[in-house]
Amino acid sequence: MRLQSLLSLVTLPGAAVAGDAFQSRCSSFQDQINIHNVTVRSVEYVAAGQNVSQAEVAPVCKSSLQASIDFCRVTMNISTSDRSHLWAEAWLPRNYTGRFVSTGNGGLAGCVQETDLNFAATYGFATVGTNGGHDGDTAEPFFNNPEVLADFAYRSVHAGAVVGKELTRLFYPEGFNYSYYLGCSTGGRQGYQQVQRFPDDYDGVVAGSAAMNFVNLINWGAFLYEATGNVDDPGYITSDLWAVIHDEIVRQCDPVDGAIDGIIEDPDFCAPVLETLICDSTTKNASSCLTGLQAARATRALSDFYGPDGKLYYPRLNYGAEADSAGVYFTGSMYSRTEEWYRYVVYNDSTWNSSQWTLDSAKKAFDQNPFNIEAFDPNITTFRDRGSKLLSYHGTQDPIISSTDSKLYYRRVANALNARPSELDDFYRLFQISGMGHCGDGDGASYIGQGAGTYTSKAPRINLLHTIVEWVEQGKAPEYMPGNKLDASGNIEYMRKHCRYPKHNIHRGAGNYTDPNSWTCVG
Ligand SMILES: *[C@@H]1O[C@H](CO)[C@@H](O)[C@H](O)[C@H]1NC(C)=O
Ligand SMILES: *[C@@H]1O[C@H](CO)[C@@H](O)[C@H](O)[C@H]1NC(C)=O
Ligand SMILES: *[C@@H]1O[C@H](CO)[C@@H](O)[C@H](O)[C@H]1NC(C)=O
Ligand SMILES: *[C@@H]1O[C@H](CO)[C@@H](O)[C@H](O)[C@H]1NC(C)=O
Ligand SMILES: *[C@@H]1O[C@H](CO)[C@@H](O)[C@H](O)[C@H]1NC(C)=O
Ligand SMILES: *[C@@H]1O[C@H](CO)[C@@H](O)[C@H](O)[C@H]1NC(C)=O
Ligand SMILES: *[C@@H]1O[C@H](CO)[C@@H](O)[C@H](O)[C@H]1NC(C)=O
Ligand SMILES: *[C@@H]1O[C@H](CO)[C@@H](O)[C@H](O)[C@H]1NC(C)=O
Ligand SMILES: *[C@@H]1O[C@H](CO)[C@@H](O)[C@H](O)[C@H]1NC(C)=O
Ligand SMILES: *[C@@H]1O[C@H](CO)[C@@H](O)[C@H](O)[C@H]1NC(C)=O
């Protein structure tokens, strides 16, 4: 099977002809499915190039997507309690390579990420995904229903994997030899959650830009609102001014890595001073400078967040991400997912609103940590001891989740396992993707191939499914993570070799920054 067949992207010959064995196996599959807690909604053959039907999909989740490959699609309900169930899909490709993969969600979950299913199935994986237990990116379904919250916290991905594996064995007589997980953001948290809680589920886990330390990530949204205030506050900073602050932070921090390329390789090696932006007495254009109060507020917003108990709740925002965070956290109102979490989960009061927030609310939320949703447990010995691999990455320009939080977890694991990085390397590697935003985008070489959004067919081997398969099945661990920067027309501008933590990239002076070999991982 092997990597060649895994990675040879296939162009399919239109719809299959009548009498096609795969297609008829798909047509008769529904009758064979008799799995506990599973109610099949539909089984249909989908040919490459066809639009994926949205008839069975909840209105809030409908999307438009063209299949890249021929596959058999199973949609179903999976019951998880007498008050909760999942909506799930399995995509079983014609060109199957003997591997299973489970996919995750985003935000407050609530939709099967069909683009991820399409991506993985294209590489021959039997792929499953669920909606995380509710439809739509909102916390309201958790109100008065802890079972729905349990699905979101930890249960949905596991239940989806149990069912997905059973379907895979049922559909393909040869079964599967390896099982994987792929997810980013909430999907990243779900990946770590499975590693911690269901360590036997996967041989390889790809977890990116993880929303772990979840409750404090939620709390941090309130801290950032408190730090930056309402639009009519005297020290409020508009998004235009955040763009000015961003330019100044890049001016101060970009050269630290040895190359002035607009990219801050590792924001933890800089301590920008924003008072340099305070308007001087001759300033004519106040839209390009700050008041003293604004400089203080911006500095606070870019500081670590401590709870009322003196504990570090959440590490500061990535320097370099501030301009992109303006539309998320500095809008003059509390981040909606944060407000909803307090309303529907912490206070269980549909009339609660952000004006009632105090620092003690953060502690209340932290202490509550329902179903251990935070996914921050560093004891992952069972996962290590069974030989599974955890491949993790985080963009250093992530405006929604601090990449420092992924480093924090890495260090907690090192502490808990009493293992230095060279030993953790055997099974757990964390890569910092400089200039990558939240799961993609950003100003840097962020095309690392973890999904349709960061994959370019112009560099087909830069594909994290390929990377994790090589590591798990051939023992070839990734030394660095290659990423491409694309220009506006989708051509590759340059490639960079992103370092694995705790190393970070330094430009050695010889050669252009566009030359990947002019960089060295140090530390
Ligand atoms: C399946 O993959 C092989 C190469 O791995 C390719 O030759 C073949 O055309 C593909 N078939 C279909 C139906 O996709
Ligand atoms: C699946 O669940 C939905 C609610 O989300 C329900 O409307 C539908 O009837 C269920 N379908 C089956 C086949 O149980
Ligand atoms: C498939 O979807 C696209 C847009 O999403 C639409 O333009 C096209 O008409 C659809 N094709 C079919 C056969 O429905
Ligand atoms: C089936 O659902 C029930 C709750 O409705 C749950 O207790 C049980 O563990 C589930 N069984 C399987 C095999 O998932
Ligand atoms: C699983 O591995 C065995 C032994 O290498 C091999 O014979 C078999 O074909 C593999 N099965 C699949 C589904 O790849
Ligand atoms: C003021 O500064 C801002 C931000 O640098 C710039 O966009 C704008 O054009 C300037 N206005 C004038 C009148 O110079
Ligand atoms: C939430 O409040 C409702 C009343 O509004 C109550 O019935 C319910 O038991 C509460 N749930 C929890 C988990 O406290
Ligand atoms: C928030 O709640 C307070 C009362 O606790 C109320 O006075 C205020 O109008 C509410 N704000 C919004 C935006 O609903
Ligand atoms: C870590 O987990 C393993 C396996 O569950 C357990 O045996 C061990 O006691 C745990 N270690 C700590 C420090 O809790
Ligand atoms: C490095 O490459 C960039 C992009 O091709 C180019 O604009 C720049 O002039 C080069 N710098 C040097 C010092 O060669």
TrEMBL record:
InterPro entries: AB_hydrolase_fold, Tannase/feruloyl_esterase. It holds the Pfam family Tannase. Residues 1-18 form the signal peptide. The keyword Metal-binding applies. It is an enzyme of class 3 (hydrolase). It catalyses: feruloyl-polysaccharide + H2O = ferulate + polysaccharide. GO terms for biological process: xylan catabolic process. Keywords: Calcium, Carbohydrate metabolism, Disulfide bond, Hydrolase, Metal-binding, Polysaccharide degradation, Serine esterase, Signal, Xylan degradation. GO terms for molecular function: feruloyl esterase activity; metal ion binding. Belongs to the tannase family. This is Carboxylic ester hydrolase.
